[in-house]
Amino acid sequence: MTHTIHVRRVYDPPEPDDGSRVLVDRLWPRGVSRQRADLTIWLKDIAPSTALRQWFGHDPARWDGFRGRYIAELQANPQPVRQLLDMARAGPVTLLYGTRDTQHNEAVVLAACLHRLLDHAA
Asked: So which domain of life are we looking at (predicted)?
């Protein structure tokens, strides 16, 4: 079974195929109203820790280190991961993030982890 997990900026308008819209940032994105965000849930607990987010600072040179440390944080905090897996099994999920960098952010890492876990369980 194929599970659809999209990764999109919270600043982009909702798409018809979004399914469940989940904000995976610890901080609310500047300039976005709750109505405009059109969230299903804000899952703060799945976001990188404040210390990790500050260390990374969206520096692409620290990407590999960030990815490894964030995966370790996800493994140490399985409940929100299970919650997202259940949502993905039920239908499309869109992971929303606030940063401008579309390639180096927690939603990219999280989507890859979720795909791995869903593929492994199949």
From this structure: Bacteria
Using alpha carbons, list the distances in angstroms from residue 113 to 2, 3, 53, 89.
Answer: 15, 13, 18, 14
**pLDDT tens, position by position, 82-101:** 999 999 999 999 999 999 99
Report the number of distinct structural domains present in the chain: 1
> What confidence tens digit (pLDDT) does each residue in 67-79 have?
999 999 999 999 9
Backbone angles phi, psi at 21, to 5 degrees: -100, 120
Going by their DSSP bridges, the two strands 41-42 and 5-9 should be labelled as unpaired
Q: Where are the beta strands (DSSP E) in the chain?
A: 5-9, 20-23, 41-42, 93-97
For residue 115, pLDDT over 70 is answered with yes
Q: Tell me the residue range of the domain where 114 lies.
A: 5-121
